[in-house]
Design goal:
Blueprint: E1 4-9, E2 24-29, E3 33-38, E4 40-41, E5 48-52, E6 56-64, H1 67-77, E7 84-91, E8 98-104, E9 112-121, E10 124-132, E11 144-152
Parallel strand pairs: 4-10
Antiparallel strand pairs: 1-2, 1-5, 3-11, 5-10, 6-9, 6-11, 7-8, 7-10
Protein name: Altered inheritance of mitochondria protein 24, mitochondrial
Length: 155
Amino acid sequence: MSSAITVRQQLAVRPGAQYDTEPRTLSFGRGSLFSFPLHSTSYEADAATVRIPAGIKLRLTSASVDPREMSEFLRTTGKTSGSGVSLRFSSEENGDMLPMCTFDGERGGDYSQTGLGIEVEGPRIVRLAAIVERGCKVGSALNVNVFGSVRKGDL
């Protein structure tokens, strides 16, 4: 039995483009704090898959975007309002990708969201995605950095 969560995501140069590399796989052991960038995508089907083994709890506490990436994203899309990326989450029990927070040009200086309060105990598979606005397929990538911890489950 593994005591680490694994995050697996396909990467494309920009949202809507063909994949150009092998899937990226990251592992985080019990007791670790972690951060990882969710590469933005236009499609929910490209969500990162997070495998949580039995006896382990995943806690997602905050998310952020890089202000420089946001500026470049808004510049290349030619929009300032309504353009951006939303962090979405789904579980085995509910396959719908539900928005947890959104980062866009209208929010100005809001580049981080704290207090997400997402806790999932394994064994589970959840999905996380950084979904860009559908009209921004040719824009630059706008990654969402996710922060949290891996704890022993309450079993």
